[in-house]
From TrEMBL:
CDD domains: STKc_PknB_like. PROSITE patterns: PROTEIN_KINASE_DOM, PROTEIN_KINASE_ST. It comes from the Bacteria. Residues 1-247 form the Protein kinase domain. Residues 295-322 are annotated as: Disordered. It comes from Lentzea waywayandensis. GO terms for molecular function: ATP binding; protein serine/threonine kinase activity. Keywords: ATP-binding, Kinase, Membrane, Nucleotide-binding, Serine/threonine-protein kinase, Transferase, Transmembrane, Transmembrane helix. The keyword ATP-binding applies. This is non-specific serine/threonine protein kinase. Its EC number is 2.7.11.1. The chain crosses the membrane at residues 271-292. The keyword Transmembrane helix applies.
Length: 466
């Protein structure tokens, strides 16, 4: 919507950031008016807040049919760039950053303002550790009408809460969800819900809890508290402040404060469908899997038994057994984890690995997707995300059926954009891997994984999932 200049205030003799609204040529007058009103809103909103972690707006100027916003100049990188350049952040460092962002959000919420676009690129961190929350351009004041002339939802999909996606108004709780996503991105090095398309991103927000491997147990507790689907049970700002303060002071474990405010009947957010286009994600593929219906006869790790067909066929196949070291075929469900076809799996998000999937070989470490690699994890899902984590293993067959539908739909979003002939398959956890979910030393996984490679098994170069 514009450009930001480094400028000099000639009256007060100070450096400022000068944001210039610069809509593209040919933009409709109605859309231009919306952009201009958002810029004015940013000035009004920030002007109402007095907090060290909020960028100060000094003045607004109109000249030659242009609008300019004079703001505090912050000489710092944003959190997204820091993670991109320097890798995942330390949990204690992140706790200190989160405390400052939380303070800015609390000040906004007390003034009746919801930010609505908390994300790493809107959080600037100076070399001395001071934090600034920026871009209140789409913030929503309780007494201010929404700025979407078509009634759409404004914000970044990967950071939107399930309650917002289901049609609820933005609230302090949805800002805290976005802060939780931001913290997960910073400490894990990848955005937990970012997927290959808007539809698959929205599905991830609604159905897939983030994989937290690098976060300390204490910080993971805070992140999971923020990322609680039920708004009435979501971690509140005072609760989070207490926990983050303890982490910043060196605590390795924190307890989730008890929340008595959400015991009203009927207030839990139970979402069957999202009206923002999530149905695009092939409801047929998922319709049968939202209710847990285990099959008692398939609680082993052997996988479904069907006839063996060509790897290049569009049908899923299953081999009775493969020798150790044999390549896992395309569209053949395999098991991962303790005692599985792939005995160890350490990738998450959309990470890449050097070697191809072979029977009996672990996948322990990632390689940059920008360089040569054999396989890429292109999606993952937690089928029983809303069930207790000590729930009985649903069986390999049940998980395989879910995974075939899920990975097929996710692959459809990738295949048309690739010039290569790709193979892909799904991995489901073994029963031992599933039941080790709460193992403190080496926690197991209760998710299913979708993995792709070039059909001729030559190296891939570059990520296929954005």
């Amino acid at each position: 919507m514009g450009v930001v200049w480094r400028a000099q205030d000639q009256v007060l003799g100070r450096a400022v950031a000068l944001k210039e609204l610069h809509p593209p040529q040919g933009m409709a007058a109605e859309e231009r008016n919306v952009l201009e009103e958002r810029m004015l809103r940013e000035a009004r909103t920030a002007g109402r807040l007095n907090h060290p972690a909020v960028v100060t707006v000094y003045d607004i100027v109109r000249e030659n049919d242009r609008t300019y916003l004079a703001m505090e100049l912050v000489d710092a990188l944003d959190l997204s760039t820091i993670v991109q350049r320097h890798g995942p952040r330390d949990s204690v460092w992140m706790a200190n950053v989160a405390l400052q962002v939380l303070g800015a959000l609390e000040a906004a919420h007390q003034a009746g303002i919801v930010h609505r676009d908390v994300k790493p690129s809107n959080i600037m961190v100076r070399p001395d550790g001071a934090v600034k929350l920026t871009d209140f351009g789409i913030a929503q004041a309780m007494d201010d009408p929404r700025l979407t002339h078509n009634g759409g939802i404004v914000g970044s999909p990967a950071y939107m809460s399930p309650d917002r996606l289901s049609g609820w108004e933005a609230s302090p709780a949805s800002d805290l969800w976005a802060l939780g996503v931001t913290m997960a991105h910073a400490v894990e090095g990848i955005s937990p819900f970012e997927r290959t398309s808007t539809a698959s991103t929205l599905h991830a927000v609604m159905n897939e809890p983030p994989v937290l491997r690098r976060a300390s147990p204490a910080l993971a507790e805070v992140i999971r508290g923020f990322l609680t689907v039920d708004v009435t049970r979501r971690l509140t700002a005072p609760q989070a402040r207490q926990m983050l303060t303890a982490i910043s002071q060196g605590a390795t474990q924190v307890s989730l404060p008890h929340n008595n405010s959400g015991k009203k009947k009927g207030t839990a957010v139970k979402i069957a469908a999202v009206v923002v286009g999530i149905a695009v994600l092939a409801g047929v593929a998922f319709a049968g899997y939202q209710v847990f219906k285990p099959k008692n006869s398939t609680t082993n790790n052997a996988g479904p038994s069907t006839s063996q067909t060509s790897e290049n066929s569009g049908e899923w196949t299953e081999a009775a057994s493969l020798p150790v070291g044999a390549p896992l075929p395309s569209r053949r469900i395999a098991t991962f984890g303790r005692g599985g076809d792939v005995p160890e799996w350490n990738l998450s998000g959309t990470q890449c690995a050097k070697d191809f999937l072979t029977q009996g070989s672990p996948v322990r470490s990632e390689v940059p997707c920008s360089g040569p690699h054999g396989i890429q994890l292109f999606s993952a899902a937690t089928p029983l995300w809303d069930k207790p984590k000590d729930i009985a293993y649903p069986g390999t067959q049940w998980l395989a059926d879910f995974t075939k539908n899920y990975c097929t739909e996710q692959f459809k979003a990738i295949e048309p954009n690739s010039k290569e002939v790709l193979g892909f398959t799904g991995l489901v956890p073994t029963q031992k891997e599933w039941e080790a979910y709460n193992d403190a030393a080496t926690p197991g996984r209760q998710e299913v994984l979708c993995v792709l490679w070039k059909q001729d098994r030559s190296p891939l170069a570059g990520s296929l999932v954005g």
